[in-house]
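re the bet — no i am not wrong, look at it urself. input seq straight from the record:
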Amino acid sequence: MYGRRQSLILINGLTEQAECWFSNLKFWQRHFDVHMPNILVYEGELLHRRIETKQPIDVDYLVEQFHLYLQRFVQSPPYHLVASSLGGKIAVELAARYPELFTRIVLLCPSGMGDEERLPIIEGVRRSDPTSVVNSVVVKPRKIDRGVLRYYQEKFTSKRWRLGLLRTIRGTMDHTVRERLRDVPHPTLLVSGKRDEIVDPHTAAEAVKQLPRGQHLSLDCGHAPHIEKPWLVNRLVVHFLTSERPTPRPRLRELLWHSPNTIL
């Protein structure tokens, strides 16, 4: 019997663009109708028109751009959300403003959980040093696909791209969503990295308590668990979004159940 798979919306972080999901997309597409709105196009005309006319590139603007995308191109609510880093701020605001549109949410090292965040990425962008950007996000850069570094090496040669990124950082970095968490009624899993150099994992663990239906999982990784631990995160996301009683620590058997051709 055929049926429509539930839509899953991916919201990337500041420096990642849609390329950050390269280790996750194919796996999640087996279970969901996956959409990756590439709203943050740092060389794009829309973003640079806002820069030229001195309009802010802030979280409110990005939230409404995502909402507009859903209305125009998906149109099949309710949606699941998986968001990383800055995308966590956008996901929380979307879910709080339009709760009827969403079902379950996974936040991967979301920013905006406290008043302060460390952004070593800014200096890396200013120095045109893509290696420092990757190093600030992951614990073991040598294990990351070389295509990620090549992608940033290419992008960092573009002044237009760097300007778009820096203006987005400036417009979004002070936006906090800690007080908005109580307005998110959906089952929500917040994954934090024990060695995250950008978002304090202790702050994230405390913030989960504000979520009416929040769960927390701490992993031994940096700021990008979906890049550093894709095998585990891919299956945790599917488990949390599809299980009748999701848990942040499912048994190995439950995770393997989502792996094709696995003999239990």
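see?? Residues 35 and 73 are 9 Å apart (CA to CA). told u. also The longest strand covers residues 102-108. so pay up
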